[in-house]
Amino acid sequence: MSTTAAVPAPTATGTTTAGAAPDPARTRRRRTLAQWGFVAPAVLFMLLFFGYPLVRNVVMSFQHYTPSTFFTGKAPFNGLDNWRNVFGDDLFGKALWQTIVFTIGSLIGQFCIGLGLAVFFNRRFPLNGVLRALILLPWLVPMVVSGIVWRRILDQDTGVLNSFLGLFGIGHTPWLTSTHMALLAVILVNIWIGIPFNMVILYGGLQEVPREVYEAASLDGASAWRTFRSVTLPLLKPVITVVLVLGFMSTVKILDLVLALTDGGPADSTQTLGTLTYQNSFVQLDFGAGAVVGNILILISAVFAVFYLRANRNEGK
Question: Is 12's pLDDT higher than 50?
């Protein structure tokens, strides 16, 4: 009994399909579709929750948008009127300057104290981990809660801080009610909140510095300050860039802390771009002006985001 091997069916061109190489074009198409299949959910999420609100906010800044618009859907375009009104308002210039002072003051305080604590905890000593965990507490508490607690602490008449200072004969300081002291008080509270973030990131960066580098510096007779300035800081440069840029982007738009402490007062002395956006949109119900200030904040953050990405790219080369 003999068996006959199956012969592959001929194709239209007269050749058989057995052992034929896959079509490169079809393989590329399948690979491309598979890649877009993985990327599509993220792209859709970005478009819905970031792209649409951003475009809508830009469009709103050129419209006469009122509370009745939510019911009628009619918001006529008014050109650059909203932008002219915002830039022509003296409060905008004041809020912009106070935002700059608040952001720079907060970043300097948070970074310097956070770096000092990171260097301190980089050594081995008893209860190191426990103390680091305790310092993280301000970072874990919601900012509104921190603002309310500090408002009680800084109260001129019943605050704990003034009661303590009174033991040394220092008069009751109007921390939150003086136009000269309120912004400083808000900056100090924000520094207290931001120290743990700076310390954790910088401490992680210090852990990556090789110990051999410090040993070599010690053998060369370098002092502690010279080692810190010539070894630690240069090797921490990528981490410092991340800390400062992310700190800037979170500080420049801060809102809840200022509202909890001073609500932008007294006499607008703590008004920032973040609180001005809130005041225009939800207090004065001028949504077009609020959108303008919001767009300015987005633009400022975008500039520093580009700086952050370029800095990281340059460090990676």
Answer: no
Q: Which two tokens stand for residue 86?
A: 């915002």
Say how far apart CA 306 and CA 298 lie, in whole Å: 12
Cα angle 257, 269, 199; round to 5: 40
- DSSP letters for 137-183: HHHHS-HHHHHHHHHHHT-TTT-HHHHHHHTTT-----TTT-TTTHH
Mapped onto helix, strand or coil, the DSSP state of residue 277 is helix
Which residue, 250, 263, 248, is CA-closest to 148?
263
Total-model pTM: 0.84
> Any idea what DSSP says for residue 89?
-
Report the alpha-carbon distance of residue 276 to residue 34 in Å, rounded.
46
Which residue(s) pair with 63 in the sheet? Answer: 77
To which H or E segment does residue 303 belong? helix 287-316
**Digit-coded pLDDT (tens) for 141-174:** 889 999 999 999 999 888 999 998 888 888 788 9
For residue 142, the one-letter residue type is P
